[in-house]
Write a structure and sequence with these properties.
By secondary structure, the chain is α+β, with helices and mostly antiparallel strands. The protein has a single domain, classed as Chemotaxis protein chec (3-Layer(aba) Sandwich). The protein contains five helices and eight strands. The strands form two sheets. The protein has a six-stranded antiparallel sheet. Strands 2-6 form a two-stranded antiparallel ribbon. A hairpin with a 2-residue loop joins strand 7 and strand 8. The protein is globular and about 45 Å long. The two termini are 20 Å apart.
């Protein structure tokens, strides 16, 4: 499970060192893809295949599922941690997430999220202000 928030930097080649406590769970292949709200998702490859499998099970007859599947799979790349515990983030994905140098590496349960540090600070601040209302709404729906 991936938890916590870590501040890191991209090097000049677009490589990102993952937090040491995340590396143990990122053995073997992993997938970096576009995420929601302008961040990137990093999944162990098997988990990512399962995620796409759930979308694929819905078939191609619903345009919403086609759209979501295309969003997450286009531009996604398979990678592995290098000997220094870094992943390489391709230019197109760095551009999508507006990553330059300072990034926030966020544990979000089953995946890692990579955010531009400034965007993460703004998003996190907005979320903190609204979290009580959001949790109340979800509780009223019986989700929490």
């Amino acid at each position: 499970m991936f938890l916590g928030e870590h501040q890191h930097t991209l090097d000049a080649k677009g490589r990102l060192s993952l937090p040491a406590k995340f590396r143990a769970e990122m053995t073997g292949r992993l997938v970096v893809s576009k995420g929601l709200e302008g961040c990137l998702y990093v999944h162990p490859a098997d988990d990512y295949a399962e995620f796409l499998g759930r979308l694929t099970k819905r078939g191609d007859f619903d345009p919403k599922f086609r759209q979501v599947r295309r969003f997450f799979s286009s531009g996604a790349v398979e990678s592995e941690l290098d000997s220094a515990g870094r992943i390489s983030i391709p230019p197109a994905l760095r551009e999508y997430a507006e990553l330059d140098k300072d990034v926030a590496v966020i544990g979000n349960g089953d995946r890692i999220e990579v955010w531009d540090a400034g965007k993460w600070a703004a998003y996190n601040g907005e979320t903190t202000e609204r979290i009580e209302d959001v949790t109340r709404e979800l509780a009223e729906l019986g989700i929490l």
